[in-house]
Amino acid sequence: MRWGFKMGEGSKIPTPIEISIDSHPNVLLTGGSGSGKSYGLLYLLGMLLQDSPEIELYILDFKYSEDFEFLDGYEHYFKGNECYEGVMEYYEKFCRKRQERNSRKRMMLIFDEYPACYSYLSAIDKREKSKKASDMANAIAEILMLGRGIKCGIWIVTQRADASLFANGSRDSFMVILAMGRMSREQKGMLFAGEDIPDKIYHRGEGCMLADGHPLYEVAIPKVSNMIDWKKHIKQVLTKK
Fold this sequence. Notes:
Layout: E1 2-6, E2 16-18, E3 27-31, H1 37-51, E4 56-61, E5 77-79, H2 83-100, E6 107-112, H3 114-128, H4 132-146, E7 152-158, E8 176-180, H5 185-191, E9 206-211, E10 217-220, H6 227-239
Parallel strand pairs: 3-7, 3-8, 4-5, 4-6, 6-7
Antiparallel strand pairs: 1-2, 1-10, 8-9, 9-10
Helix pairs in contact: 1-6, 2-4, 3-4
């Protein structure tokens, strides 16, 4: 799968970053407002479906983003308060695949603004004495730690990636970390501990990427010439199955 292009190599021909989704199914995509995170996610979603058109894909959109309105009608598109049900439905399928040792078909869950959903559920749990937030966090942690062998992955998209959001140390199970735009010193240390991060300002659509077994890359997400057609293609691939 193509993840973007390397920056800063001085070559007139951009060098693509190609990393297999089979070995790197768990992705943490982070970046503040205006970083190009949502645009980057749409680009990567298109690349994922080009690489694995038969994948069973769950897309969770807690903030009702306009970027994903085109997915209305897709059976595995969950938005707002539906996101909890989306996680648990995916988790049930993961458990069946694990019990059956079924690694034939790849599954992926993409969760945009997971921390906001977690905070929302935590507030409800306090009021109603339920435990939806912890159930969701534990399900995500289990999939992160055990899903690769049965072709189950998770992409988490967030402005911040505090370790407290990921149960049982599961944040360490992300094989790809992609941070878009400007990063604080705290974020650099949290996401890329021990790495020599260039002291520079990354513009919209630019950032740093660290994947297991690879050096740190400075990455640029290319411009999609026609985003309307790009979205149409994404939905066509998802709904033709």
